[in-house]
Design goal:
Blueprint lengths: L6 H12 L11 H5 L10 H9 L18 H5 L6 H14 L8 H13 L28 E4 L2 H5 L1 H16 L4 E2 L10 H5 L3 H18 L3 E4 L2 H10 L8 E4 H10 L12 E4 L13 H8 L5 E3 L28 H11 L4 E4 L2 H13 L7 E4 H7 L2
Parallel strand pairs: 1-2, 1-3, 3-4, 5-6, 5-7, 7-8
Helix pairs in contact: 1-5, 3-5, 8-16, 12-13, 14-15
One iron/sulfur cluster binds next to helix 2, helix 4 and helix 5.
């Protein structure tokens, strides 16, 4: 196949993205041994790094779009090669040339929706806070304890709206003075950046930062690990720093400080899936587990590939918007792992994981076998 991107441009883009780290690759192949793709099909990030070193990347192909940015291979690389940054820079070149294979075209729809409505789900901006209609959630005002940044999936996706409702109910029950931004909230921009649309990311980030500053926001509670990651690790590129807390951390504090009491019982075997952007990318492994252990009657059991070795759900890096054939879904493997240890509930804390797991639950006909829950849904049932 013809290589469209010129030699120099690919190399320059990569250098800009991750410096010269890719040159340290000595082709040991350790990255490929941990990459989840190799559980479902052949894929080599090692080969992509090699080809990129010489500017010989096949920009038209599917392979540069596969990486879910799960963070497994950077963790194992003995040479500190920044595989994720290299991959994203190749997507930037492809995006610049408007070269997208068929499976990636749906990500273009998400991009258009982000530009026009501030979310990837083609939801109308004015309907962003419709989920909260019956809950009397206040608009954020300066001086409140925290801003609850709801995020796109929890604002628009029918399954995920239940998590937003559960979260708001818990915060109210604990007497937290919080507010939301409603139609002033934009997507955090994390995933669109990973698809190579840097300009769209920057615009979303700037709009959010301006709103945070204009509204006097200091502390932000988030439900999505992707919002968490971006606010904490990427927005500081714009010379701002907000206090960012994941809802799991916040709820654990509420319980420990006596502001929230769990009174019900949840007599089920529950296993916890570490989302890549909460665990590997941000080292938050214990708080979700500690929170689950606070639930009366709940038995926490661990499945294979947990904590640092967590098996990606397949939704990061913009893959949540791309087409993945049924037989190549990591989320199916994850549900099978949960079922193998006899878990009745697969709990997690990420809208992409829940979306993928709910789909796998249907694909595998696990409706009677396994429930998928956000941790907040379990906590809300205990109030
Ligand atoms: S693990 Fe690192 S050094 Fe080894 S092949 Fe992969 S990128 Fe190269
Ligand atoms: S970050 Fe994850 S999905 Fe991407 S190449 Fe590395 S191991 Fe594979």
């Amino acid at each position: 196949m013809e290589t469209v991107a010129p030699f120099k441009e690919v190399i320059d883009e990569i250098k800009e993205a991750g410096g010269d780290a890719f040159k340290f690759c000595f082709q040991c192949g350790l990255c490929d041994t941990v990459c989840p793709w190799n559980r479902v099909r052949q894929f080599s990030i090692r080969k992509i790094i090699r080809e990129a070193t010489f500017g010989l990347t096949e920009i038209e192909g599917e392979d540069i779009w596969r990486c879910t940015t799960c963070g497994r291979c950077p963790q194992r690389c003995p040479r500190g090669v920044k595989q994720i940054e290299v991959g994203v820079s190749l997507r930037r070149v492809a995006s610049e040339y408007e070269i997208f294979p068929a499976s990636v075209r749906s990500a273009r729809t998400a991009r258009a929706s982000l530009i026009s409505e501030g979310n990837p789900l083609q939801g109308e901006r004015k309907k962003r806070s419709e989920w909260a209609t019956d809950l009397a959630v206040k608009p954020y005002a300066e001086g409140m304890e925290a801003l609850y940044f709801v995020g796109c999936y929890l604002s628009y996706d029918p399954r995920m709206k239940k998590v937003a409702v559960a979260t708001a109910k818990i915060l109210k029950k604990a007497g937290v003075e919080f507010g939301i931004l409603g139609d002033k909230e934009n997507c955090c921009g994390e995933s669109i950046r990973k698809t190579g649309s840097e300009k769209v990311f920057k615009q979303l980030a700037k709009d959010n930062i301006k709103t945070f500053i204009d509204s006097g926001v200091k502390k932000i509670i988030v439900s999505s690990p992707h919002c968490y990651h971006t606010f904490k690790n990427e927005y500081p590129e714009f010379m701002v720093n907000f206090e960012v807390v994941h809802i799991n951390q916040f709820l654990l504090d509420l319980i420990d400080s006596g502001r929230l009491e769990l009174t019900g019982e949840f007599p089920k075997q529950v296993t916890y899936h570490d989302p890549c952007y909460l665990g590997r990318h941000n080292d938050i492994y214990e708080e979700p587990r500690d929170l689950l252990r606070k639930v009366p009657g709940l038995e926490l059991i661990e499945m294979a590939d947990s904590r640092k070795d967590s098996l990606c759900c397949g939704g990061g890096g913009g893959r949540i918007w791309m087409d993945t054939p049924l037989e190549e879904r990591f989320s199916d493997l994850r549900l099978i792992q949960a079922n193998e240890i006899g878990a009745q509930v697969l709990a997690t804390s990420c809208p992409y994981c829940i979306t993928n797991f709910e789909e796998s639950r249907l694909n595998l006909e696990y409706e009677e076998v396994l429930e998928i829950k956000d941790i907040t849904e379990i906590i809300n049932d205990m109030l």
